[in-house]
Amino acid sequence: MDFGTYLKLFDYQERLDMKINIKTLLSLYIEGKVQLIDIRFPEEVKAWNLGFAKDIPLNELPDRLDEIDKDKLIVTMCPHYDRASMARHFLTLQGYQCKYLVEGSLGLVDYLRGNKARDFTKAIENI
After folding, report:
1. What is the pLDDT along the chain (127 residues), one digit of tens a residue?
2. Under CATH, which number does the domain 35-122 receive?
3. Buried b (16+ CB within 10 A) or exposed e, 62-101
């Protein structure tokens, strides 16, 4: 599908379907149903890294599609959601089932503190 066709078909349901929140993301990740793609620049990832996301900078995404699992829901993230939304649109047009993380990686880092970080890391140890 081209972008023009996508826009013509865009409706309220697609607006809802394109987003995912932190709790849903983490639950699906624990179940092995999600691949999380961090599309920040390499310098940003070098400064701080989550460790459980696949790092593919937005400008490298078109050349690295072979690293993305078409059998899983793809969730894109960046600090807020601007680049993640662009990546989601691109991947959707490439045939991937894709959402972007509404709260962004900053929200995810804030959420995964203390007991929540401990519980999540224990839950994904065998993935």
Report:
1. 899 999 999 999 999 999 999 999 999 999 999 999 999 999 999 999 988 999 999 999 999 999 999 999 999 999 998 999 999 999 999 999 999 999 999 999 999 999 999 999 999 987 7
2. 3.40.250.10
3. eeeeeebeeebbbbbbbbebebbbbbbbbbbeeebebbbb
CA 107 to chain centre: 13
Query: What letter does residue 63 receive in the DSSP assignment?
Result: G
- What CA–CA distance (Å, rounded) separates 117 from 1? 39
Name the pTM for this structure. Answer: 0.93
The three-state secondary structure class of 98 is strand
What CA–CA distance (Å, rounded) separates 109 from 95? Answer: 29
Residue 50 to residue 34: CA distance in whole angstroms: 15
Quote the CA–CA distance of 109 and 113 in Å, as a whole number. 7
